[in-house]
Amino acid sequence: MSALSAGPVLAASFDITGSDADGYFAIVGFNQEGNTTTGGISNDPNDPKFFDYPAYVNPNNTNNIYIMSVEPYKFGLVYPNPLHPVDATTYQDVSATLVEAFTEDADFADSDIGGFDFDAGLVTGVGVEVVGVNDLTLNLDGAEFESTNRTNLNPADVGPFGPDGRSNRNEFSNAVTLTPSNLSGTGLTFVDGVLTSIDLTADVSVFAAQDAFGGLGGFTGDGTLTFSNNTFTFDIDDFSSGFVSARLILNRTATIDAVGTYVIPEPASLALLGLTGLMVLRRRRPSRS
Fold this sequence. Notes:
By secondary structure, this protein is mainly β. It contains 2 helices and 15 strands. Strands 2, 3, 4, 8, 10, 11, 12, 13, 14 and 15 form a 10-stranded antiparallel sheet that branches. A hairpin with a 2-residue loop joins β12 (219-228) and β13. The protein is elongated, with a radius of gyration of 25 Å. Residues 1-7, 156-165 and 267-289 have low confidence and may be disordered.
């Protein structure tokens, strides 16, 4: 009995990018600054108390403030209210004391969260075709949500309290990992070889590994990532307990540029025609005398 061959795998991929994104990744309730008020935050990047992040007064100790790591950042972001985590089920209103960061990300609206891999041999390029969730791979990249430094300080002032962190001399430098699982839904829809829709939902775990204190600690939150037609939306709002507790919020959303523009690179039908043509040419090639 001979085995049925599925044919060659024609690797294809496209990026999940866009230019109209909104939303952010926030770590809330982690970084408390003792004996510092919102009025005591410096706007001088060379000051040890320069925190280029939103902040609010500790509702249980008005002598201290909490600095929030928010990436990417723009003025006027909307945060859940109540915001400050006491525990996994209790949050406190801090809206009256919440202050903005000093600067915005110029590329706030640009998104790049990873990409899809699949076998182009599954698409002929003719009519309506679907690559199901079991036939594709979703790769996610958390770099867009990592705290990064805006100011190069004295080279002697090294991380974690120096150029590694957007908050400069604070502990916000981190590495963010996004892990998808349990994909469900339709998948990728193509019409005559053009990607016309992405419809699926994935469970997502986000892990923020803090660079401070030699990498000690880190925070994990779980939620979902939904693709609908030409958009993606993260829905993560979770409480993470570790050596310090924090609330993780990821609500980034954007239009995906690839939908409507990505064309299958080599439809299986064309590849088959090309192979047939080569066989015909070889048969017609005259023999050498």
